[in-house]
Amino acid sequence: MRSLLNRSLSVLAVASALLAVPALAVDSYPSRAIRIIVPYSPGGQGDITARLISEKLATSIGKPVTVENRAGANGIIGIDALAKAEPNGYTIGVVVASHALSRAIVPQLPYDPVKDFTPITTTALTQMAMVISPKLPVSTVQEFIDYAKKHPGELAYKSAGPGSNSHLFGAWFADAAGIEMIHVPYKGSGDSMPDLMSGVVQMGFDTLPAVRGHVDSKQIKMIAAGGPDRSSQYPNVPTVEEAGLKGFAANSWGMVLAPKGTPKAIVDRLNAEIGAILRSDDVKAKFETMGATVVANSPAEAEAMLEREEALYTDLVKRLGISITN
């Protein structure tokens, strides 16, 4: 009887010790370096955001924070690596709005963009601008729509590639406005600018940082802010919705994600640390130069946003027939 009691007590002791391990890991977090996966090439807004965070996070937690660019397949390679990482807070990632498009665009996506991740915070919101060629004899959204209706199928909108958010916004605008336009994909924003300036393509949605210099030099015309709000840099330019297309909102955003199953205490710690970094004056100023507004919301708010955006984009992709081949 005593032997059975001793064995039972031993089993309970081992079980208690095992249960204490995760708690101990959380209490001692972080005890080593943190890796931030960026599933895009260096130089983009996701990469810049990760590097802004990594430098200050390393100082605040007293541990190294490294940035690892894992570009390829429109972000899928790096995001898949993040989804498969240990959910212990030592591997996190920074994604942009195209993450919410991926499941609708890629049929055999190796992860679920919502269910396989735990959002930590939304970093910033970057407004898109509706820009047109200076060759067009129009200056407002309504004038552009009227002109397009008089020239059905003759006007083209540019994008950063099939299945990109600029592809989605161009197709969404054409559908909402009831006009017929041709989609012309490019490898990126910079590649498309000469054709927009010369009138080879007539319209496109792009981030403010990418077009601001061309707008200010009058090489292209900005006739609307993507929305939902006007740009603080161009307060006299109305949004597309104000111009009459109700419910239209073209913007991009960044978000810090952790693998699904990351302990809440660690997510909350990272949210507090990263949120403080994003709200610091110098980081806010840096984002403003990129045409972005810091968000720094809670994990629950970031999760709700990701779910909303994924649902919206999935519906639009299906309704508009958007794919990576058209």
Structural commentary:
The protein is 44% helix and 19% strand. It is of the alpha/beta class. The chain folds into two domains: 31-122 and 253-320, Bordetella uptake gene, domain 1 (D-Maltodextrin-Binding Protein, domain 2, 3-Layer(aba) Sandwich), CATH 3.40.190; 127-225, Periplasmic binding protein-like II (D-Maltodextrin-Binding Protein, domain 2). Strands 1, 2, 3, 4, 5, 6, 7, 8, 9 and 10 form a ten-stranded mixed β-sheet that branches. The relative contact order is 0.17.
- CATH fold name of the largest domain, please? D-Maltodextrin-Binding Protein, domain 2
Please give the radius of gyration in angstroms.
Answer: 23 Å
Query: For the record, what is the CATH homologous superfamily label of the largest domain?
Result: Bordetella uptake gene, domain 1
Q: β content, as a range? A: 15-25%
What's this, in brief?
The protein has 326 residues and is of the alpha/beta class. It has helices at residues 2-27, 45-61, 76-83, 102-105, 141-150, 165-177, 189-198, 208-216, 264-279, 281-289, 299-320, and strands at residues 34-38, 65-69, 91-96, 117-132, 156-159, 182-185, 203-207, 221-225, 251-259, 292-294. The protein has two domains: 31-122 and 253-320, 3-Layer(aba) Sandwich (D-Maltodextrin-Binding Protein, domain 2); 127-225, Periplasmic binding protein-like II (D-Maltodextrin-Binding Protein, domain 2, 3-Layer(aba) Sandwich).
